[in-house]
Amino acid sequence: MIPTPTPASRPPGLRTLSIATVVAFCVAYGLVFFYAPIEAEEGFLQKIFYLHVPLAIVTLCGFVLGGLMAIMHLRTRDRNWDLRSYVTIHMSLIFGVGTLITGSIWARGSWGHWWVWSEPTLVSFLIIMLLYATYQPLRFAIEDPERQARYASVFAITAGAFVPLNYAAVNLSTAYLHPRVLGSSSNLPPSMALTLLVALVAIALLFATLCSYELTAKRTRMLLRSRSRILGFQGSGTTERRPDAARETPVPTSAPARAGVHAR
Q: pTM of the prediction?
């Protein structure tokens, strides 16, 4: 029977992080619907802002964080940093898809179009998403684990450096239409700014929680595979006795019996 993973293989604070995420979401979107005022021009539709903007910020920060973890992998050659970088970028891609969907819904309600190519914020974010969409195909096109991790780290660092440069370029654009939610030029009322901040914390906690669950799942899967290989190796060397009690000579274990070790 394959041993189950020990409790030490699970992050000790995963349950606490999950509870904190649920509490933060309840507080954040309680503020969204019952505290933050309704915007005068867009009305209730503007409340999608408290989901769309935090998703975008966390996505871009996740891409940069994945690049920083990739730097640590190249410096230390520790495969754990490569795994963390992979999971962070993977989760950022998922959050990025949510950003594009909520942004399209907001654009449709505000401008009457699902997409506006003249809006640099939307287009620049799409470019970043298309860039990172090549990360996994590039990674899994390489079979050798060491080369795979090394090339993926170089890609993550290069693409991660592009993210802040792209953000700076958008800030310099004269066609900037989105409200500036970061910096001294923000025109949000205090109640909206507070609600946005709490929503951002909730989305960031959700990101951290999902990354922790994915890391735990991948590490548990690798642990089970290693235990299975060990048991399979041990099982291949075992012997069994024939039913005839008169024969005491051991015979090699049959193929079905060996396969049964992995099936348990």
A: 0.76
